Amino acid sequence: SQQGEEDPQALSIQEGENATMNCSYKTSINNLQWYRQNSGRGLVHLILIRSNEREKHSGRLRVTLDTSKKSSSLLITASRAADTASYFCATDAVGAQKLVFGQGTRLTINP
Amino acid sequence: DVKVTQSSRYLVKRTGEKVFLECVQDMDHENMFWYRQDPGLGLRLIYFSYDVKMKEKGDIPEGYSVSREKKERFSLILESASTNQTSMYLCASIPLWDPSTDTQYFGPGTRLTVL
Question: Cα separation of A49 and A36, whole Å?
């Protein structure tokens, strides 16, 4: 079955630096979504990018999608300590009518 | 704002007990989902439902069942809890499926421990 796979599994950077996380998937998708989860809390939707879009911005977030490589990246610019969380990509496969989540990237921002 | 609530944040049960996890959404969404989240495995779909009394198996339905008697409520049932069902359970809902626009709205999660 299709699965989004995040890379790296863990990332630790200094406050103010940019953080980049990648997601790869296996089959054709309708859209790809990024979620954030603080420790012990629920998931919060960050951004959705459709299969016909290549790049999308939302505040300090920038998402790219390369359907030819079946991959997406999430860039968080000017990171803050409060950005420390796990980040998940989720793919909506064509015809599947459900989201499939990856294992997540654990991001730690050091003050 | 969409609100998805789950009946318990933390639950401790014993092996063999029957466990009910309740999820309620207040936005008249048709689709509801149950996931479990485990370290290193991400989120895995257990069951989902498109409408009242409709249910579909997800990727890991074994050991679970669900009930959707009312549109706003989707229950996950562990008929006989086992220790390998210790996990964080997340409920989500969305309106009629529109892959071009919709995101899933998640509840806060229930951390279930089976002793």
Answer: 15
